[in-house]
Sequence to fold (154 residues):
Amino acid sequence: MNCPFCDTEVEKAVFARSENFLAVYNIAPILPGHTLIIPGKHILSILELDEQQFSEMMQFSRKITRLLLKVFRTDSFNWSVQDKETAGQTVAHMHMHIVLRYTGDLPDPGDWYPRISHNYDQILDSSNRAKLGTKELANIVAQLRSSWHIMDYP
Ligand SMILES: [Zn+2]
Fold:
């Protein structure tokens, strides 16, 4: 199976996990902090999650968002799921984007979406967006991993 999220390489960017989900730092972030929440199991659609898994994903995503806001020192964010091809899904493994926002980051607040949809989730092979170096990614992931371990709020 040719899925970048099932490839073992993805482990380098994983900084937190819940029972069924992983938080993965985007190797080609559209803005600092850009993270993906993915199920560990290869499923296509958010509709395939049962109620308990869906609830787990929402709770985990909110915890990860709080962590990211703290580490990257901002208070605003976008969440986005492109579910199936017509909606712009290009990797057949369900994933939710968490995009942190910063004052004055983009000319228009809505400009983040085109940036995601142009090659939005080539996590391991982005040719259009600037890719983090191996060391840079390792540093960010290490910082997030240690912050995740000391986090004690819901
Ligand atoms: Zn997969």
In short: The chain has three helices and five strands. The mean pLDDT is 89. The first strand starts at residue 14 and ends at 17. Helices lie at 51-71, 112-117, 134-150.
